[in-house]
Fold these 3 entries.
Entry 1:
Amino acid sequence: HLATSLPLPSERDHLRPRIDLIVFTIDIKSKYSLKNVETSLAHVDASFFLGKVCFLVTGVGRVNACSFETSAISKLGEAYCSPVLFCELELEGIRVTTAQRLLQMLRICAGHIPGVSALSFVSLMRSPDDD
């Protein structure tokens, strides 16, 4: 299911399936994209940041067209204890690899990988320098 921003409309709450993973997509060429994500973050329950949120940054192959520094997104990931994936959707190989990574994250978050929880997954994604 896709949404352009949060909060989700409440009139269909009873029909909405359980949310296992929230992927915030940020287009590096658009300042509006980052601002929209930052605004939407306020509508996410704090418990989701324990392994059920990630940031997907697209357009990273065109560094000269960036509207903001990638460090701003890395800081966002650190602030919300959530992984950041950088990709270029125009390249098929990277697009496929990114989709596979997102599906694996979703399987973990949905509880379909025995012995691995969303919370333990986030701790595996952390850099040793974070300590």
Entry 2:
Amino acid sequence: IPGYGDSPPVEMAVTAQGRRTFLEHVFQELGMQRPVLVSPSMSGRFSLPFLLAHGDQLAGFVPIAPVGTKDYTAAQYRGVQTPTLILYGDRDTRLAPQALQNLQHLPEHRVAVLPGAGHACYLDKPEAFHRALLGFLRQLK
């Protein structure tokens, strides 16, 4: 994610529209057609604006306790038809419940909870994470 960790800041990443545009450019540069967007934690600042504006360009969306879900309304989420797998660890008691409360308004969602996993559930329980993710991917058109 630009501006996090050791990555340099990107000017366009300051606003939600800029972050959406940044992600549009990434998909365009990579030549991706209807990708599945997997979005853990801080990447929610990029994925959510993209999902709400261009969800029809995604084959699927996999939010993993992303930040920023409270920035959008239930009505905005209800307008998104992208198949979604809301995935989180049951030991993530801070961010995951808030994300679930907001993202459950996505009409085409299902939920996978990884027992014994924390916020970085894909690191805590990689086999269970991959089973849930691959099961979701297999059901996409």
Entry 3:
Amino acid sequence: LLLPLLLLVVPGGLGKPTARQERARPGAAQQQQQHHEDGPGFQYDHEAFLGKEEARSFDQLSPEESRERLGKIVDRIDENKDGYLTTEELKNWIKRVQKRYIYENVAKVWKDYDLNKDNKIAWEEYKQATYGYYL
């Protein structure tokens, strides 16, 4: 789902040519771009591709600003700078974004669970942080 989104935004003039770009129907990009939020996994895809915080910031942008920022991201995804995105480059990007999200999430949860701030989480701390209001 993410690759078609990239292909729709990039032909708007900012970006990288793609192998599938030439095969798109005239006007299809604009038509699909207007309705891309209709899919059931849109928010999940947005977060997987951009990261949770970045996805939130994109939600506040105008379509023009969003296209510009996405074009810059596409430049970063194109590892070999050949002007094309491969499936492997896209997979690597998503893995990198997800790994960053995991590390950030672990750091936040660690702070919440390490109640005595000794940089260790004891079973009692875990129980208190997880079930404290039930006990």
